Amino acid sequence: MWRRLDDNQLIKKIHQGNADALERLIQKYYPEIYRFCYRKTGNPHIAADLTQEVFLRLVKSLDNYIHEGKFKSYLFTIALNLCHDYFRKQPPGMQRLDDFEVPAAENQITRIEQSYVVKEALSRLPDIQKDVVILRFYHDLTLPDIADIIGANLSTTKSRLKQGLEKLKKFFREEDFC
Amino acid sequence: MELTMDRLTKMYGSKVAVDRLTATLHKGVYGLVGANGSGKTTLMRMICDILKPTSGVIAYNGTDIHRLGEDYRDLLGYLPQHFGYYPDFSAYDFLMYMAALKGLPQSKAKQKSLELLELVGLTGEKGKKINSFSGGMRQRLGIAQAMLNDPKILILDEPTAGLDPKERVRFRNLISSFGTERIVILSTHIVSDVEYIADEILIMRKGTLLDHGPVNHITAHIHGAVWECEVSESEAAQLNDRYTISHLKHLGSGVNLRIVSESKPCESALPTSPTLEDLYLHYFKEESHRDR
Amino acid sequence: MTDQKLKEILHRYSVPEIDPAHLRQTIQLAQKELNRARIYGKITFWELLAGQIRYISPYIWIAQAALLVLVFSLLPHLSRIGDAQQTAMAVLSTSSPLLALVAVPELGKSLHYQMWEMEMACRFNLQKLILLRLILFGVADLIVITTLLLFSSTHSPVSLIHLGMYILVPFTMANSLYLFILRKVRGKAATAAALSAGIFLSLGFALLSRFSDAYAVTTLTGWFLLFFLSAWILTREISTLFTYFSEGEQLIWIRS
């Protein structure tokens, strides 16, 4: 019976205290939120902790959740805010992604290198452009949804994406990446 | 969290039940103490928005509770002094019914009902008809229904009525753990019920708030007016007629008396530190004489 | 470089595997948080209404069904003897006060069993509960009345509108009377008072339809006037009842 429930129906059940519906919702969105937090922070442990915090924050804020817009956007808004809070709490200088860890499944040197180069490229973008690029390219969100999440209007979002993409292309060209 | 009463008055016809009562309550357990007919129940009914004040206002965090309506009732748990139940209800049915009226969704209602049955020690009786329950069991069930919606304001009118000593102890523990994060008001005419669990005592007489504060604060008001003495049986009988006796103990040689009196009652009397019971007797001399 | 190519490059940035233990921990923590949180999602009035049906005493439905069966079995026989119009009138006008009577104990039960004070302090207070019960019985009565009408119109030459009036006028009158009694008579006596009033009313209508020529020949306009008058009284009675149930002091008769 769960298959047929969309996000809003799940939320309604969770609202009524249904723990199974909550499990279902977390199963569904955990991987995506985790990937987002990982790409924002570059550290798997911090990403996991932030992901957990996103869902706890969701439960606490259900009271204020109103059914307008997509639930997924709402979840990303929480995630984005928490990531920003995380960086704000870090002393300056520690924000860089020196603690690069080798993804467990990867073992070929070239792939690790490539992964590293992309990470490096993203890290050079200012946060406001990086957020838009990550949401657009890794999470396939539409521009209006992204605008909603980052709390900017559509044209600002578009221009941030454009600037971000140009910088990335330039970087990859200089690195002779293809 | 703040519950304020401002010159609260309730009249039934020409009879004043609550008379310009002003008080501010914060988180904590309040013991509302007073003789029968002192206006405790009327006050509690007004706090529950069951009775409308004739004049004056009750406000929760600054807003008139009557205007808050169902939002206020969401925060409210109430155990009336007298209550019944529909005859075909089991303990569990009763809680599920009340939970629905309190707006709890089915799954939450089940969970809370079972949790509270456990808390008041009725898990074993959950399927039994309330008809077959003792007075104490009914009272415990009543307390459970008041807590179903996890109230921020819990109003209990004579909650210990009908409870046996063991149940009283259990009730006290329950309330003291409950009172840290909410406003709990419980009325009683049995002082010892609230002496140890109430953070603050409110003493009501004839519709007014006679005194209020933590137990040691308000008992200090009658410092020097409580005496202890050892006298013979015949002297004790005389003193009993003239003074308010708070405690009487027969010894081999005579009688040990505890007397509440502004003046020294007899030669051998020594002042002693007052308890809440003494204070109550001090305020309710007339009523307690009448009771005898 | 195309956007497509860029996307491909970006996706070379892979993410470590998810730790299933951490996922499980997250679910558990979130569920704990959900349990601890105050109950936020409140049910709506209509959800409450659906849930309350099972608390309505089954005897109500049985009594209503019994009444229907009784009319069904009596009407065809009776219409064969005597004046058809008078018979229809007698049967319908007698049964409709009884139909309304069936709901009285349910409406009065909060007071009867001293549940009203607890109910008044709930989110859905006594006033809403009474409204809810009125809606439930109103719908049930409407179904019964429709069935009665359709049935009697097949067994009687009298027009549907006349039949409707024969049912609705006594029905609304009876309801007003019962609600008035519920409001005026306190405690357990209320149900008994309503019961006797109902039987009295029912007998009254039976006699009236049998013996009063005026009653039988009253024109349709007359019936409509009667109906609107009784409906107006009923509406006023219902609104008075709600004011009554919103003021606790009206309900307190047990002095503490």
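qc> The two ends of chain C are 87 Å apart (CA to CA).
qc> done
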